[in-house]
Amino acid sequence: MKAKIKMYLSEFVSNDTVKEELAQAMQSGLFPHALIIDGAKGTGKKTLAGIIAEYCVCLSDDVKPCGKCSGCLKAMHRCHPDIYIADGNVSGSLSIESIRNMRSDAYIMPNEAPKKVYLVIDCDKMLPPAQNALLKVLEEPPADVVFVLTVTSANMMLQTVRSRSRIYTLYPPSPEQAAEYLKNIYPDKNDRELMDAAVLTDGNIGQAIQNFETGSEEAKALADEILTAITEKREYPLLLLTNNLSKSREFAAKVLDCLLDDAGECIRAASGLETNSKAAEIVAERLSVRRICQLAENISDAKNVLKTNVNLNFFGTWLCAVLKDN
Ligand SMILES: [Zn+2]
């Protein structure tokens, strides 16, 4: 299960230079009025923007964000009246009208926090007129207001907007650091699964989370069908099924993980132990334990092949050839 975790700046993965600069700005009290956080999708731009928002509304006299005061708690529950979010993925939210409304709002004092913060998320599609509307408020920023813009590349913002903002660029962490971080979110997953997810996504935590959260059921269903086709010795249907793995490397990895779990269940069933997989029971009736072990070994090999730069279009055909003899 994915759990919501509370995060402090120090816990943000990797990106030490960005963290040091931000920590210094937070401690000095000379926090920039406008920040652009750029980096590839999944590198934590929104997470970092969230930490900055918490810093802006934190009521602590000590290190901010404290994670404990009413400001931090409201920020965490996304109900703080001084945090405004304009998300580029929501139609119209970065239109020139919306930005003008945001601009007038920025001149009104914060409701209860030391600072008011505007999170302008995913600015990739923000058109120049809207950017120009934003520029007006960046040129003469009201006191106690912070704008945080996230975008995949700062170059998508007008030079005039860039020059009035502090730019922080995020990079994905190493797979090891990513796996370590993922463990906090998915304590139920084992180290191998976490490391595989991190390696497959080159340490892109957002992508790894998305992979964990989507397509699992589809992968499980496909794995069951593949297993049935193997035991029924139906080569052509097996080929059609394994060719579905060409969809994406992540999906293929997920199907192989399910197959490996299934093989484990088959061994349980073949050893007379309880299993909740119907497909495993059928396989156990038809294949010997030795052959199921061979199958598990072949699937493990396939997982290693997938980690190399194998062409996905050939991978399905190759996998079919390897599995059909089990
Ligand atoms: Zn606080």
How do the helices and strands line up, and which of them pair or pack?
Blueprint: H1 16-28, E1 34-38, H2 45-57, H3 70-76, E2 83-87, H4 96-106, E3 116-121, H5 128-139, E4 145-151, H6 159-163, E5 166-169, H7 175-185, H8 191-200, H9 205-213, H10 216-231, H11 235-242, H12 249-270, H13 278-286, H14 289-307, H15 312-324
Parallel strand pairs: 1-4, 1-5, 2-3, 3-4
Helix pairs in contact: 2-3, 4-5, 7-8, 8-12, 10-11, 10-12, 10-13, 11-15, 12-13, 12-14, 14-15
The structure holds zinc ion.
Short description:
The protein is α/β, with parallel strands linked by helices and 326 residues long.
Strand content: 5-15%
Name the bound molecules.
zinc ion
CATH superfamily of the largest domain: P-loop containing nucleotide triphosphate hydrolases
What strand order characterises the main sheet?
Answer: 2-3-4-1-5
What is the number of E strands? 5
Report on this structure.
The protein has helices at 16-28, 45-57, 70-76, 96-106, 128-139, 159-163, 175-185, 191-200, 205-213, 216-231, 235-242, 249-270, 278-286, 289-307, 312-324, and strands at residues 34-38, 83-87, 116-121, 145-151, 166-169. It is an alpha/beta fold. The chain folds into two domains: 9-169, Rossmann fold, CATH 3.40.50; 214-324, Zinc Finger, Delta Prime, domain 3. A five-stranded parallel β-sheet has the order 2-3-4-1-5, sandwiched between helices. α5 (128-139) links the parallel β3 (116-121) and β4 (145-151). The chain is elongated, with a radius of gyration of 25 Å. The protein starts with 15 loop residues before the first helix and ends with a helix. The model is unreliable at 1-5 (pLDDT under 50). Zinc ion (ZN) binds at residues 58-60, 65-66, 68-69, 71-72.
